[in-house]
Amino acid sequence: MTQFDNVTVIKKANVYDGGKVTSRVVKFADGSRKTLGIMLPGEYTFDTAAAELMEILDGELEVQLPGSDSWQSIKGGESFNVPANAIFKLKIHSLVDYCCSYFE
């Protein structure tokens, strides 16, 4: 899917790590939501409330998922899942354009 139709976009950005990670919330008629964002190179730790699907639209990163000591390489066109109530780490190697879907 390259576009979302009939949605509400929250104008105010979510800004993390001094502006190195930003996103905007997209709300759908069925109550579901996604965020569209950009991550600049760096290392980040995030926590989740809901389960997430992270779709990497462009860029390269490594992810360390909960319960794993290893890092997995991810590039544009790939995705990964993060369980609810978890902590995961990212190493961003080049600007990453992403879409995050939440499952509550």
Account of the 3D structure:
The protein has 104 residues and is an all-beta fold. The chain has one domain: Jelly Rolls, CATH 2.60.120.10. The protein contains no helices and eleven strands. The strands form two sheets. Strands 1, 2, 3, 4, 6, 9 and 11 form a seven-stranded antiparallel β-sheet that branches. Belongs to the nucleoside phosphorylase PpnP family. One of its GO terms (molecular function) is purine-nucleoside phosphorylase activity.
Topology:
Layout: E1 7-9, E2 14-16, E3 21-28, E4 33-39, E5 42-47, E6 51-58, E7 60-64, E8 72-75, E9 79-82, E10 87-92, E11 96-103
Question: Distance N terminus to C terminus?
Answer: 21 Å
Count of separate structural domains: 1
Number of strand segments: 11
Mean pLDDT equals: 96
Biggest beta-sheet profile: 7 strands, antiparallel
Low-pLDDT segments, ≥5 res: none
Classify the beta-strand content into a percent band: over 45%
What is the count of DSSP helices, taking H or I runs of 4+ residues?
0
CATH topology-level name = Jelly Rolls
- CATH top-level class: Mainly Beta
List keywords for this structure.
Jelly Rolls; 0% helix; 104 residues
Task: Please outline what is shown here.
Helix content is 0%, strand content 60%. By secondary structure, it is mainly beta.
